[in-house]
């Protein structure tokens, strides 16, 4: 059984999508061990607990990035977590954490990387005037929104779209492809060849 830890900072809809996929048998061989939020009031923490998943708050304030990451890793290791999924976790991870869980940290980002990394990807897409955007699940490396791509989905940008309406369209696809990507990584039926994930 692969044990998944999920890091969040907010609403937690991707965390819920992962939890529902796991409980619905769509991620064979996986269980969710822990949800960690760096924001005490994150709605996702309550949503995890409602599902019977342990949710804990770890405050990053007053600590260096690596100190906070070491505290998270200690909680993850305590529960024998194999795989870490970032689900709206709005902080950079330290190089130490990336090495500690090398090739075992996944992230979802609301754009077709390498377009629009960083904050407000959907607003950046609207501003740029692209006709299509989407979302990307990738392995996390030491550069922001950069590691090898596991899955992507494309959505159209419609006339009159705002960052909000585009975000909602992208979010539906996030909830579909994140569980698929996690299922692939849990299955082990892939290899990493440079930037490429080969199924
Ligand atoms: C999602 O759209 C996710 O792709 C994005 O934050 C949102 C979190 O929503 N993540 C990033 O922008 C990371 N750079 P959720 O809390 O409902 O899953």
Question: Could you list some keywords that capture this structure?
Answer:
2 domains; 6 helices; about 35% helix; about 200 residues; alpha/beta; Rossmann fold; two-stranded antiparallel ribbon
Q: Could you walk me through the main structural features you see in this protein, from its secondary elements to its overall organization?
A:
The structure is a single chain. With 199 residues, the protein is an alpha/beta fold. The chain has 2 domains: 1-102, Rossmann fold (3-Layer(aba) Sandwich), CATH 3.40.50; 108-199, Rossmann fold. Helices cover 36% and strands 25% of the residues. It is built from 6 helices and 9 strands; from the N terminus they run E-H-E-H-E-H-E-H-E-H-E-E-H-E-E. The strands form 2 sheets. A 7-stranded mixed sheet has the order 3-2-1-4-5-6-7. Strands 8-9 form a two-stranded antiparallel ribbon. A hairpin with a 2-residue loop joins strand 8 (191-193) and strand 9 (196-198). Helix 5 packs across helix 6 (163-187). The longest helix has 25 residues, at 163-187. The chain starts with a strand and ends with a strand. The protein binds glycinamide ribonucleotide (GAR).
